[in-house]
Amino acid sequence: MLLTDGHDRTFKYLRLSITDVCNFKCQYCLPDGYQACGKPAPLTLDELRRAATAFSELGLSKIRLTGGEPTLRKDFEDIARTISALPGVETLALTTNGYRLGERAQAWKTAGINAVNISLDSLSAENFHRITGHNRQLEVMRGIDAAFDAGFETVKLNAVYLKGINDHEIDGYLALTKDRPLSVRFIELMETGDHAKFFQQHYISADVLKTKLSTNGWTPKLKAANAGPANEYVHPDHTGSFGLIAPYSKDFCKSCNRLRFSSMGKLHLCLFGEFGVPLRNFLQHDDQISELKERIQMAVLSKSARHQLGMGLTGATSNLSMIGG
Ligand code: SAM
Questions:
Q1: How far, in Å, CA of 104 to CA of 116, rounded?
Q2: From the CB of 162, is ligand 1 less than 6 Å away?
Q3: What is the C-alpha separation between 322 and 325, in angstroms, rounded?
Q4: Is the pTM of this model over 0.90?
Q5: How far apart are CA 322 and CA 67, in angstroms?
Q6: 325 lines ligand 1 (CB under 6 A)
Q7: What residues pair up with 116 in beta bridges, in sequence order?
Q8: Contact present, 257 and 11 (Cβ < 8 Å)
Q9: Cα of 288 to ligand 1 centre, how many Å?
Q10: 119 in ligand 1 pocket by Cβ < 6 Å?
Q11: Tens of pLDDT, residues 63-75
Q12: In Å, how far are 26, 213, 223, 290 from 220, measured between CA atoms?
């Protein structure tokens, strides 16, 4: 079964947020840290299992656990074990700030995670501290080694491209791809409701990087027909690759292949939509899964062709930790 929208896009990839809590204080996301302020509890293991079952039965074979910081959940490994065991789930990926990766990489691999994306916005310990509020850059670097040692199918490193903050560090990131099959990706800073001023000060277009890559012998990798919006570049002297994720570029949304489900049980058709479709009521019993699937199919038909970020319309997203970046 294929889940499609009204613009000929097919969805095989779900980003499942399992918590909106984060322990980091990234300047562009939660600069004052996570504020609990009376929010409902996140989806339970059974609710997550039902959601993942419905999506996988609708043909979404890749699920990424995200947040907030997903690995903060005490039952994180139970969640990974349960979801990876579902028929139809071929890839269970994780996006993490990497703070526990060094010690837990092997356990997470054993629990069924196949692919890991690590966020690392600076290679300098001091700059990393300034961006995230945590003096843990070295720990995260050790986590990357541990991920390779554990044998994940893919290890990716994500950095948000920030003018005046980390845009001078590109050569260091390129060097990381030299001898290992590491995929480094730079993501354009996206404007969110809470951070218009930070965006104005620090947004820089990925076109700047594109020019740098082509002058330094990097060439675009051919994209598979069902590939997502990242553009990958390769170099004959580098084992790994370098990717750009440029949500402000023309046609970015044309290759959108993903849906998002929040830890509050809402389906988000776009990171920058005005609302999420509340589906938690349909996650209470196993016999609701058929109805849940019908709701999802109906909702996806109304997914809009593109976001309106270019016009400064950020929808209801105050920061990315609330939906799952
Ligand atoms: N805690 C995990 C982590 O740090 O990777 C998962 C959640 S985090 C919200 C997911 C990704 O979104 C991170 O790579 C983060 O840098 C990115 N992100 C958050 N806010 C962003 C923004 N305004 N623009 C671009 N990327 C953003």
A1: 12
A2: no
A3: 8
A4: yes
A5: 7
A6: yes
A7: 94, 155
A8: yes
A9: 32
A10: yes
A11: 999 999 999 999 9
A12: 30, 9, 9, 42
